[in-house]
């Protein structure tokens, strides 16, 4: 069966680089949504705990429950609580959502500073504080998310300016409505790596921890190392004459006599079909034709084939981003931690 390896040394190396930027391990909130970016929620959460990470960010209640014992603090980005929890905080994504939380729920208020996706409007700030107070919620933090931290456009600075004002206003409102101490956070991976002046209560770091952060060349990325590799096993091999065709649609025709083998990793496992025809592995082995549901063919006889070890590289072949390559990897694939 195809399998995934997780390089513990690379992961710890990345966390050490990140901790230098946040100036403390406990200011890292490791983003573990979507099966820890396809790496395996439990595997990565366990390693993170071993390293000394105390905070995690997930999408759902279900994810939070799975790792509740491993962290001191968990932020849920898009779900509502089933039962009260001391560790789990819930995100307010819309002002109309506030009245749906039960009394005493720990909440964090997301403010839209220019991404125009989730969060309350900036001019709803006081109303949100009032509603949280009326509802008896424990409002612990105000945060925002960047649309363009990894791009060279004006939005990053614009949102930073906006969030600065939100912070000032929130400090005043926190006193008025008794939500002290109030914490603040806005940095994702790209924001952390492009600025040298991190001064918030935590940074929500995903892709950098997995070693696949990409920034335009004008911005700076340090020595991050990809954590995840995918290997596939050979199912069969054949020697083909010039002019024979491989796979669905007979889409690949051999130009010379060659060895072709079929491997147990296809689009049903998360191998994006747009990698068909032109993908070349890190070892320089070419794909032959279309990717099938459970299989893909390559011009080699190798027993075990490294499919990729840097999601940024294969993402270029698929005309996408490393995030999609990683989260496409199905949960059923075995994850093995290399020590
Ligand atoms: C996914 C996510 C992050 C992490 O982003 P990276 O680019 O992977 O560091 C941070 N904050 C929020 C709100 C997110 O949804």
UniProtKB/TrEMBL annotation:
Modified-residue entries (N6-(pyridoxal phosphate)lysine), positions: 33
Listed GO CC annotations: cytosol
UniProt protein name: Alanine racemase
Gene3D superfamilies, alphabetized: Alanine racemase (3.20.20.10), Lyase, Ornithine Decarboxylase, Chain A, domain 1 (2.40.37.10)
EC category name: isomerase
EC numbers, comma separated: 5.1.1.1
Keyword vocabulary terms for this entry: Isomerase, Pyridoxal phosphate
Alanine racemase C-terminal domain: residues covered: 227-338
């Amino acid at each position: 069966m195809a399998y995934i390896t997780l390089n513990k040394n690379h992961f710890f190396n990345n966390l050490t680089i990140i901790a230098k930027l946040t100036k403390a391990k406990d200011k890292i909130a490791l983003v573990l949504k979507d099966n820890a970016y396809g790496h395996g929620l439990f595997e990565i959460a366990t390693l993170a705990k071993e390293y000394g990470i105390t905070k995690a960010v997930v999408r759902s209640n279900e994810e939070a429950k799975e790792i509740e014992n491993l962290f001191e603090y968990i932020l849920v980005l898009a779900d509502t609580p089933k039962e009260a929890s001391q560790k789990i905080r819930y995100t307010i994504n819309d002002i109309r959502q506030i009245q749906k939380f039960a009394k005493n729920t720990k909440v964090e208020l997301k403010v839209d500073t220019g991404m125009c996706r989730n969060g309350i409007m900036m001019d709803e700030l006081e109303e949100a504080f009032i509603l949280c107070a009326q509802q008896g919620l424990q409002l612990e933090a105000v945060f925002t998310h960047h649309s363009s931290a990894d791009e060279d456009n004006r939005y990053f600075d614009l949102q930073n300016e906006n969030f600065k004002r939100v912070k000032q206003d929130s400090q005043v409102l926190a006193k008025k409505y008794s939500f002290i101490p109030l914490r603040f956070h806005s940095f994702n991976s790209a924001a952390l790596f492009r600025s040298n002046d991190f001064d918030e209560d935590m940074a929500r770091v995903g892709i950098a921890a997995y070693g696949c952060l990409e920034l335009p060349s004008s911005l700076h990325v340090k020595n991050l190392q990809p954590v995840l590799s995918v290997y596939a096993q050979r199912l069969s091999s054949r020697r083909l004459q010039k002019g024979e065709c491989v796979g669905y649609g007979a889409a690949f025709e051999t130009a010379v006599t060659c060895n072709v083998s079929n491997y147990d990793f296809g689009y049903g496992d998360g191998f994006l079909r747009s990698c068909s025809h032109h993908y070349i592995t890190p070892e320089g082995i070419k794909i032959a034709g279309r990717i099938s549901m459970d299989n893909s063919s390559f011009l080699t006889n190798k027993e075990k084939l490294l499919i990729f070890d840097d999601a940024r590289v294969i993402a270029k072949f698929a005309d996408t981003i490393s995030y999609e390559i990683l989260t496409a990897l199905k949960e059923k694939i075995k994850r093995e931690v290399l020590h």
